[in-house]
Amino acid sequence: MISLFEELRLITRALEGAGIPYAIVGGLAYNLWVEARATEDIDLLIRPEDWNSIPPLLHSHGYLDLSAPMDFLDVRIRRLVKIQGEAVMIADFLLADQEEFRRGIETAAILKYNEDQYRVARPEVVIALKRGRMSGKDRIDIEGLSKLIGGEAEK
Q1: What is the DSSP secondary-structure string of 54-106?
Q2: How far is it, in rounded angstroms, from Cα 71 to Cα 78?
Q3: Residue 63 sits in which domain range?
Q4: What distance in Å separates the CA atoms of residue 102 and residue 79, rounded to the nearest whole number?
Q5: How many domains are contained in the chain?
Q6: Residue 129: inside a domain
Q7: Is residue 154 situated within a structural domain?
Q8: Res 101 pLDDT > 80
């Protein structure tokens, strides 16, 4: 079994060691800001110009670039996958093409989890990314994150 938080630590320490700025987004950001909820992958916001450095950086840790680029209207995603036996870990790197998301990397908060510290996108940035998808989990996450900033959740 692959541990989500062990992989998060491994990836973020590798990025920090290489001087690559990032911000945790997605379900893990919700976990760190609000409360624990089930999530199975790692979502990181990065600058587009840093992407080409990341696959070789994480290759020695077992991450492979097996997926075609995923380009949507509001976001571009690059995926790395780690496979150990039957266990799979997905790390999605969301390219911060928009100025709002680039600032989201720069203004990331440092949050502690156990003995580790992580750069986590502020709730407003996570909400903006989740609004682009709006799955059932995203709606619940937006509601919880909105309470942190005193805003109204999107219905």
Answers
A1: HHHHHHTTTEE--S--EE-SS-EEEEEEEEETTEEEEEEEEE--SHHHHHHHH
A2: 9
A3: 4-149
A4: 19
A5: 1
A6: yes
A7: no
A8: yes
pTM for the model stands at 0.91
Asked, for residue 24, whether it belongs to a domain, the answer is yes
Which residue do the tokens 């001087």 mark? 19
In a domain, 85, yes or no: yes
Going by C-beta distance under 8 Å and a sequence separation of 6 or more, which residues neighbour residue 126?
A: 25, 26, 29, 30, 33, 141, 145
Q: Which amino acid is at 104?
A: G
Measured between alpha carbons, how far is residue 62 from residues 23, 79, 105 in Å? 22, 13, 25
Bridge partners (DSSP) of residue 113 are: 116
Q: CA of 16: how far to CAs of 3, 23, 60, 119, 123, in Å?
A: 20, 11, 16, 10, 22
- Taking residues 58-65, what's their average pLDDT? 97
Q: Is the pLDDT of residue 148 over 90?
A: no
- Give the dihedral sign, CA 99/110/38/47: positive
Q: How many CB atoms lie within 10 A of CB 43?
A: 21
- 132-145 confidence digits (pLDDT tens): 766 777 887 888 89
CATH (domain of 22)? 3.30.460.40
